[in-house]
Amino acid sequence: MQKDVILTPEGLENLKKEIAYLSVDKRKEVAERIKEARDFGDISENSEYDDAKNEQAMLEGRIATLEDKLRSASVIDSSELDNDIVRVGSLVNVKDEGSGKSLKYTIVGSTESNPSENRLSNESPVGKALVGKKRNDEVNVQLPNGKARKLKITKIEVA
């Protein structure tokens, strides 16, 4: 059973675009590869045909997974967000009490997370610690590497 997927409006658009691209353009591309591989002759010993069929199976699996996510998606309504409490869709400014660095995180659902862009999942250790907190709250975060961080929320904005 697919768990609920939380998306921002931008994330919903990206998901729809990916499904459209895979369903139309990529399917045509793979179908063409299968057709070309068939033209090589006996398909029982044709590695190009096998590769193309495997790619087709992986493509169909990816499309099915994305469509499941889309069906179970709930989209964050930015008009319901405020600057008082951290939720999915919030842009959170924090100060790392250990290093003194100021950081900005956008809290998103797990489907849209990208730590290299500071887009943290609400299910990640830092995201989970921040959700539900208010400005000036301090949170202690146990990181996967075993280290602990103390973060102070300095500002909350609607992303």
How would you describe the overall organization of this protein?
- This protein has about 160 residues and is an alpha/beta fold.
- The chain folds into 2 domains: about 5-75, Orthogonal Bundle (Helix Hairpins); about 80-159, Chitinase A, domain 3 (Roll), CATH 3.10.50.30.
- The protein has 3 helices and 7 strands.
- The protein has a 5-stranded mixed sheet. Strands 1-2 form a two-stranded parallel sheet.
- A hairpin with a 5-residue loop joins strand 3 (about 90-95) and strand 4.
- The longest helix has 30 residues, at about 10-40.
- The protein is elongated and about 70 Å long.
In brief, what are we looking at here?
The chain is α/β, with parallel strands linked by helices.
What keyword list fits this structure?
7 strands; five-stranded mixed sheet; alpha/beta; two-stranded parallel sheet; Helix Hairpins; 38% helix
Decide which structural class fits the backbone: alpha/beta
* Total strand segments: 7
**What is the CATH topology of the largest domain?**
Chitinase A, domain 3
Q: Mind describing the biggest β-sheet? A: 5 strands, mixed
Q: What's the CATH architecture of the largest domain?
A: Roll
Helix-strand string: EHHEEEEHEE
Unreliable runs? none
Number of domains: 2
Arrangement of strands in the largest sheet: 5-4-3-7-6
Strand content: 15-25%
